[in-house]
Amino acid sequence: MDSEKAKADNILIIHGPNLNLLGVREPELYGATTLEDINRNLSKLTENTAFRLDFFQSNAESALIERIQQTMKDGTNFIIINPAAYTHTSIAMRDAIAAVKLPFIEVHLSNIYSRESFRQRSYFSDLAIGVISGLGAKGYELALKYAMTS
Ligand code: DQA
User: Fold this and answer.
1) Nearest alpha carbon, ligand 1 atom 1
2) Would residue 108 show up in a list of annotated catalytic residues for this protein?
3) Contact by Cβ (8 Å): 68, 97
4) Is residue 107 within a helix (H) or strand (E), and if so which, with residue range?
5) DSSP annotation of 73
6) In the chain, which end has fewer C-beta atoms inside a 10 angstrom radius, N or C?
């Protein structure tokens, strides 16, 4: 089993600002699924496997940067991140994710390319393995499935 095991076995899921309000926040854009539901569903996908998931949500840029930096010593080898509004503003978070040199997938619930022009630029996409945008909560699931088979 071990020889077949993918390398991305310690996966960190990072949720940026306001995603703690999922379910009540603009459900027409972000859906009715809560962050807890999303995380629970992801955990289910790794049940009875060797994959370990860690979840982190913060509304603070500095806390998000510190969590990204921590991956340099906590054994994380893959990141799934929805930087939320920091997608469009945070050079500091971009620098952190570039510094740790881990493969990552950028996820957005909504299709940022079909929204306001300020959302159509991401400081993360060119560094990401891939970007999933507009598939709602399912985007996290697809990202995790990719990580588990990469
Ligand atoms: C988002 C899109 C961002 O533009 C927005 O600021 C968010 C959520 C998404 O998941 O669709 O907070 O990242």
Assistant:
1) 84
2) yes
3) yes
4) strand 104-108
5) T
6) N
